[in-house]
Design brief:
Elements: E1 3-8, H1 10-13, H2 15-21, E2 24-26, H3 32-40, E3 46-51, E4 58-71, E5 95-110, H4 111-115, E6 134-137, H5 139-148
The structure holds a DNA duplex (12 and 12 nucleotides).
Amino acid sequence: MPHWLLKSEPDVFGYPDLECVGREPWNGVRNYQARNNLRAMQVGELCLFYHSNAKPNGIAGVARVSVGAHPDNLQFDPLSDYYDPKSPPGDPRWSMVEVQPVRAFPRLLTLDDLRAMPEWQESPLTRRGTRLSVLPVTDTEFRSALSAVGLDADSL
DNA sequence: GCCAACGTTGGC
DNA sequence: GCCAACGTTGGC
C-alpha cells in the first residue's frame, strides 16, 4: 500500500488540530506535483503528518485518507486565498482529499532524527530545497519512522 | 520556447 | 528575519 507525507504548519493546523476536528479537507494545494500526488491517494492509505515551519520540524502523527481526490472547493471561491479564476469549471485544475487522525506520535520525530536515519537518506524531505507539500513515502521510510518512536505499522 | 523577474516555501 | 531553492509568470 502506498504511503504519503503531508506537510502542515502547526501554527495554522497541526496534528492536535486534526485530532480535535476529527477530519479535515486537505485543500489549498496549488502545486502540480503535489496535486498529482493528491490524485493518486486512495481511501485508507496512511499519511505521515509533518510539521513544517515549526520549532522543531518533524512528524507528529499518522493520518488516513478518508475521502479520495475530488475537486478543491476553494478554487472557485473568489473570497478564498486559494481562488483560481483560471481553473475551468468543467475541468477543475485543483484537487483535494480528506484525512482523519489515526495515531499521534508519542514524541515528535524531528527532521534531525530523520536525517540521521539510513532509511530516510533518499527522501526528498531530507534534501535541501524540497518544497513539495504532498509527497510519497516508501514502505521502508514509513515503517522506520513509526518504529523510531516505538509504534508498529501493522497495529495501527 | 527561452529566460529574467518575481513570489513562495521552508530550513536555519 | 534571512536567504537558498525552486515554481510560475510574462515579455520577447
